[in-house]
Design a protein that fits this description.
By secondary structure, the chain is an alpha+beta fold. The protein is built from three helices and seven strands.
Length: 123
């Protein structure tokens, strides 16, 4: 599901956006380099803030995530590749996945775990 091009995008720094719906629709940014892929269908992201994101996910776990990098060749052979990820998310404050995030990002209060349902290359 997560292609080599997607994994290559994550190797380059760029802004990733996470959209959630709840009482207050919300969009939060993180960095590509913060995103860790586990077992080919889960993404782990450190959460320092993301309080509105967490509140929204508690009410509606559906999320959209976009990532991109200009350094990766896109669909039409031009510079820049980007993806739209759809999935469900949860916040973790303990366990193996949380420990994995805390080992790399000591400042993380939680780990955002996204189960990828689809990964569409948009650029």
């Amino acid at each position: 599901m997560l292609t080599n091009i997607f994994l290559e995008v994550l190797q380059h720094e760029g802004v990733a956006a996470i959209a959630t719906l709840g009482a207050k629709p919300h969009l939060v940014n993180t960095w590509n380099s913060y995103i860790q892929v586990t077992d080919g269908r889960h993404l782990l992201i450190p959460a320092g803030g993301m309080h509105q994101t967490q509140e929204n996910i508690a009410a509606n776990p559906k999320v959209l995530l976009t990532v991109g990098a200009r350094e990766v060749t896109g669909r039409r052979g031009q510079p820049g590749a980007g993806f739209l990820i759809t999935g469900t998310a949860e916040f973790l404050s303990g366990g193996e996945d949380f420990d994995r995030i805390r080992a790399k990002f000591a400042w993380a209060r939680a780990a955002l775990k996204i189960t990828v349902e689809s990964a569409t290359q948009t650029l």
